[in-house]
Amino acid sequence: MKNYSYVGISLVILIFGIWAVPKIIAKFTTPDMAEIGEVPKFSFTNQDGETITNEDYRGKVYVVEFFFTTCPTICPKMNENMVKIQNEFYGNPNFGIASFSIYPEHDTPKVLKAYAEEYGVAIPNWNMLTGEREAIFELANTGFNLYVAENKEMDGNFEHSGYFALVDQEGVIRSRYDDFGNPIAFYNGLDKKNIEMLKEDIKNLL
């Protein structure tokens, strides 16, 4: 039985030259996913009191969310689903999660540590981050285009997006395309189908 991979590569070399091989291979191995934008620089404190920046995620595929520990509505479901994603890639050092608290005055590293233990955070690359509220809001609303705001009329006094962002190894926000060829941009952290899509796309990037 012929080895068609070798035959194909041989034809590429014959027709285009040896220089074309890396480009041809890249075409078939690079994920066909949209580039939404580059993650801006950030620096916050995690649940262990360590300073974490965007450079700590360089070379990793990671998922981003904005939440707060006293959230009485969507955050518990979001983090239940995030744990499912964690478990899917448990043991892979090239995968991570960044959870930014939008209520940093309450969500100290100690509070975030207890929350992480309660929800079963078990991988070293899952950082629950706190810092200056203005910087976190700027990162959410401008850096990721994931809406957050203080609203005293809402349960918990905040409103925020329930979507997750997917970031590749180079710090670029990525997503799949919908059936019409448009980037979906973000993944609904409350929707089972979206969570499965996200898992597939993480594997694609990894």
Automatic annotation (TrEMBL):
CDD domains associated with the record: SCO
Pfam families membership: SCO1-SenC
InterPro entries: SCO1/SenC, Thioredoxin-like_sf, Thioredoxin_domain
Source organism superkingdom: Bacteria
Keywords: Copper, Membrane, Transmembrane, Transmembrane helix
Residues spanning the membrane: 6-26
Domain Thioredoxin: 33-206
Keyword Transmembrane helix: yes
Family named by the database record: Belongs to the SCO1/2 family.
Protein name as it appears in the record: SCO family protein
Source species: Mesonia ostreae
